[in-house]
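re: ur question from the group chat, yeah i did fold both. here u go
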Amino acid sequence: MPIITPTTQKLAQSLGIKNIHAVPRVTKVIVNVGVGKNRDNKTYVEAVQKDLAAITGQKASEKRAKKSIAGFNVREGNLVGYSVTLRGKRMEQFLDRFVGTVLPRIRDFRGLSLSVLDGQGNVSIGLAEHLAFPEIRADKTDIIFGVGITFVTTATNNETAEQMFRALGFPFRTQELEEE
């Protein structure tokens, strides 16, 4: 059951929704990290596990290959990455930290492109370096990896999702910046 906040009420008014429970909301956040060719490097894998747990506050689950792919030297059952699914309070805390702290720390950040919306109301963002998270100290880690983050929502299209994410504080680019 969604919590009724002033943001939710403003969003309901702007979308013209009378039932507060019909207002779109974020249901879960999925954080993914691929290990690639470093799957056999034990120190790399342990560093990814440790840093992902620090970023999300939750232990990451292993993702293994379902099929063998000869072109990528991947065999069925090989480790391909780690994933964490956040819901509830941890999701809300992660969302607040992501918008308020992580996005401003990204180098040369000018706002999110509207192409991060997938057409069904979800947002997928890829970060090239996990060092943007304040829990990771650059002087304490020697391994840098990328992080994929997906925000899954109950919105049914990009327009309502965009309004919802703007209400949550996500900085989307204006049209002038996207044309550059």
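okk and heres the other one u asked abt
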Amino acid sequence: MNTISIKTEYIKLDQFLKWADLVPTGTEAKILINNGLVKVNGITETRRGKKLKKEDTIEVDGNIFIIK
């Protein structure tokens, strides 16, 4: 499990994917999310503006991240 630290109250899902170096652009983040390939707290998430907060877990392609 990988840990990603944020200094703000939340980060949007598409921004998180770029911050964690999972995608190089927002367009690629949008495609990944729209194709149902991202899970937040175990549930497939299709909203790229989903607000992620500390302790949320994100799963992409078998990789799991937790926000601290």
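fwiw on the second one: Residues 26-34 form the longest helix (9 residues). The mean pLDDT is 95. idk if thats what u expected
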